[in-house]
Amino acid sequence: MACVFVRGIGSINLEFLTTVTSAINGTFGILGNIVNALYIIVITILIATPIGIGAAVYLTEYAKPGKLVNLIEFTTETLSGIPSIIYGLFGMVFFGTSLKLGFSILCGSLTLTIMILPIIISTTQSALKTIHMSYRSGAMGIGATKWYMIRTIILPSAMPGIVTAVILSIGRIVGESAALLFTAGSAYLLPKSFFGHIFTSAGTLTIQMYLSMSKAEYGQAFGIALILICVVLLINFLTKVVIKLGTK
After folding, report:
1. Are 225 and 16 spatial neighbours (Cβ–Cβ below 8 Å)?
2. H helices of the chain, where?
3. How many CB atoms lie within 10 A of CB 189?
4. Distances in Å between the alpha carbon of 73 and those of 76, 160, 193?
5. How much is the pTM?
6. What phi, psi does 20 have (nearest 5°)?
């Protein structure tokens, strides 16, 4: 980390953070990559969070314990350990080619959705299982329906764990490169239209760092790496804060 800081701090300035790369102007900037990363984070989280929480609630509160639930949980744990490049190949073939999304933010986001679902499901399940059974039996005893009990008691009580799952997923998205290289592409331009941009090729910070390294532009690469480290440290700090708030 010290090496990255020493070699990268000299490349970080206002122009580096607020401009896009231009061969005509002779400038290098990562603003386009930052915007692309934000697009992918927001879209992926919006899709994956309700699906992941819904799956965790079903497995924990509705599904009867047995071989099927054990198989689903085992599959979820297995998926979380699959190399991201395999997700990238699947996303390129299915979303990019079969659904004809090509290299686009939407293609990358859908691929990352599949990749982070195991994190959200398993972490949310763990949070739900920590809620004492007395909460459930007490609510049901006074005549509350199961869904009302889950919506008003179980989910709010498990919210710190759910927020932790989302924050960890964002960290995974920020640091991802292999899957996005095959699905989102490497363009660095700023969006021309807000919604139209999701159908265009877009490279994130990690993709730009890879491209800079491949061109032997080490100062730029280390500058991006330093920014990524700061983002990851911030995400870890937020995770610890949420966990501490949840234990109070």
Report:
1. no
2. 2-8, 14-18, 31-57, 67-79, 84-91, 105-129, 133-141, 146-149, 155-157, 159-174, 178-183, 205-214, 218-247
3. 15
4. 5, 21, 41
5. 0.89
6. -110, 160
Residue closest to 180 by CA, chosen among 219, 218, 209: 209
Angle at alpha carbon of residue 184, lines to 180 and 190, rounded to 5°: 120
What is the DSSP annotation of 180-239?
HHHHT----PPPSSTTGGGGS----HHHHHHHHHHTT-HHHHHHHHHHHHHHHHHHHHHH
**pLDDT exceeds 80 at position 107:** yes
Q: State the amino acid at position 39 in one-letter form.
A: Y
Q: What is the rounded average pLDDT of the residues 101-108?
A: 94
Residue with the two structure tokens 């061109």: 215
Using 50, 70 and 90 to split pLDDT, how confident is the model at 121? very high
Close Cβ partners of 145 (under 8 Å, ≥ 6 residues apart): none
Angle, alpha carbons 82-45-81 (nearest 5°): 10
- Give the span between the Cα atoms of 244 and 238, in whole angstroms: 10
Contact 32, 20 (CB under 8 A): yes
Bridge pairing between strands 27-30 and 20-22: antiparallel
Residue 68: predicted pLDDT: 84
Percentage of the chain exceeding pLDDT 70: 98
